[in-house]
Amino acid sequence: MSLLVVGLSHRSAPVSVLERAALNADEQVKLLQDTVAAEPATEAAVLATCNRIELYADVDKFHAGVAELSTLLAQHSGVGLEELTPYLYVHYEDRAVHHLFSVACGLDSMVVGEGQILGQIKDSLGRAQDLHSAGRLLNDLFQQALRVGKRAHSETGIDRAGQSLVTFGLEQLARGGDVQQWARGKKALVIGAGSMSSLAAATLARAGVAEVVVANRTLDRAERLARILTEGDDTDVAARAVPMESVPAELTRADVTVSCTGATGLVLTAESVAGAIEGRTPPPSAGPGTDGPGAPGGESGSATGSGAQRDGASGTGLGGEDGCPLELSSVQGTAGFSVLGEAAVAGMAAADLEQHAAWVDNGTAGGDRRAAGGTARPGQTGTLDPAADTDAIAALAVTVATVGRIPERRRPEPVEEPQRPEPVLFLLDLAMPRDIDAAAHRLAGVRLVDIESLAEASAGAPMAADVDQVRRIVSDEVAAFGAALRAAHITPTVVALRTMAADVVAGEIARLDGRLPGLDDKHRAEITQTVRRVVDKLLHAPTVRVKQLAAEPGGAGYADALRTLFDLDPETVAAVSRAEDSTTEKDRGPA
């Protein structure tokens, strides 16, 4: 059997795909049950966090295992296999061990070095143990991963390389300033009472906020968290719990809101955020490059509910917006962005490209589009080249047909945002799928930080020297785990060999008793001990050496050789292995 992991994370998939593929607790349980029921897998564990979904399994066939695990992930996530496949990664045997150890140390986290992942790995192991889907391999693997993660944090300064998502998110809200100075005196609303929300509430309390309001669907959990905050020795904050129905009212009072729930839909819409800040922000000042509270500067296609006013095709030079698949209101006045250029159409579906091309052709036929070398339209720099734009659209259509999937829609090139008023409401969305409507970031007076913006902010973070040290720890631990696994693989064979030798000794002593019935107990015991010593000495060197050889890469064949040379019964070896697993299981528990 061999270790296989199939998954997707913030490193392989966009947030929009991770959102749709997210699994709640019940779905994770069903995925585990279906995985161990599948033919290639005998053990399974799911590691699901806000930015990764990974399925670990002990499989007997690599290709069949990859196909089965990928199919199961697609079925349970609700994302079609064809769409999900380009974002999946696969690790096998030592590479799978290396991946999990790296994850445990925080090397693969969105914020390098964060320690939250250790608790999530422990939860993953506990769930697999409760469902009896984790056998000897995954139990040993996950417990060793926990030990490796703890070693990395205790022996290196990896904690200095990054923080938890909560701390990093608050730093982003404070625009890199001192979080305590930024938070002092603010009123905080925390939506959710799980581990991440609890950490956020505690972090805000220690940072010096004046009040923490906890909202949760289960009021008891919210009250318990509020009580912990109030009675904590390291905080001096007023905390209270409210039901989820009170969130709209509490949002009007809050200065900072953190949300991390398991909801499948939006908890805060752009409209509810807009209503919460109504009257708290000065009216927008008219000026070039602004479009009221919904001034551009965010993702294309997310203007719904943001208050952005669609004004037809003003500035496009192509007349009305009828027939245009773009969200024109999100790109009006955006310098350097052409609604006819490659950045506008990259990532469109084939049908949208065809619709866009027809819209362009209609505009050209009507004489609205200037010839090459003419004056640029408002909101566009440089000159226009109709042939180049048409070629770009055609080439992208061919790409879509060739690749067989629709890439993520690209956002307009970064431009300098117009002056916005200082935020009166700070929003931190740590949920996956997201709790807060992404369109809220366009509202004047709102600053929104979510998983996607955290990923962008952390992408260019410098790697500390401690990270290299952690990588060395991971490499050493992977080698040690592989050696131990290979050595353990031969142990049942060695035990079966020694059992066979003991049976031979017992048989010969019984035969001796029959031939020398008058042998006294003292001499009989001496002869028995002598025969056993001879057998032990003959077997000692070969069994010690075979364990050493089996622990080396490529040493798996020594167990087969030993069974063949001594004609050991395969069922006897399997029985020893089952007995060891049963004994180990009794004493096993999360590290």
TrEMBL record:
Record domain Quinate/shikimate 5-dehydrogenase/glutamyl-tRNA reductase: where: 184-280
E.C. number: 1.2.1.70
Gene (UniProt): hemA
Residue ranges of every copy of the Tetrapyrrole biosynthesis glutamyl-tRNA reductase dimerisation domain listed in the record: 469-568
Feature type site, description Important for activity: 99
Domain-level remarks: Possesses an unusual extended V-shaped dimeric structure with each monomer consisting of three distinct domains arranged along a curved 'spinal' alpha-helix. The N-terminal catalytic domain specifically recognizes the glutamate moiety of the substrate. The second domain is the NADPH-binding domain, and the third C-terminal domain is responsible for dimerization.
MF-aspect GO terms: glutamyl-tRNA reductase activity; NADP binding
UniProt-recorded name of the protein: Glutamyl-tRNA reductase
GO BP, sorted A to Z: protoporphyrinogen IX biosynthetic process from glutamate
Residues the entry annotates as binding NADP(+): 192-197
Alphabetically ordered keywords of this record: NADP, Oxidoreductase, Porphyrin biosynthesis
Record bears the keyword rRNA processing: no
Miscellaneous information on this protein: During catalysis, the active site Cys acts as a nucleophile attacking the alpha-carbonyl group of tRNA-bound glutamate with the formation of a thioester intermediate between enzyme and glutamate, and the concomitant release of tRNA(Glu). The thioester intermediate is finally reduced by direct hydride transfer from NADPH, to form the product GSA.
Active site (UniProt): 50
UniProt function note: Catalyzes the NADPH-dependent reduction of glutamyl-tRNA(Glu) to glutamate 1-semialdehyde (GSA).
Gene3D superfamilies: Glutamyl-tRNA reductase, N-terminal domain, NAD(P)-binding Rossmann-like Domain
Biased composition (Gly residues): 289-300
Quaternary structure note: Homodimer.
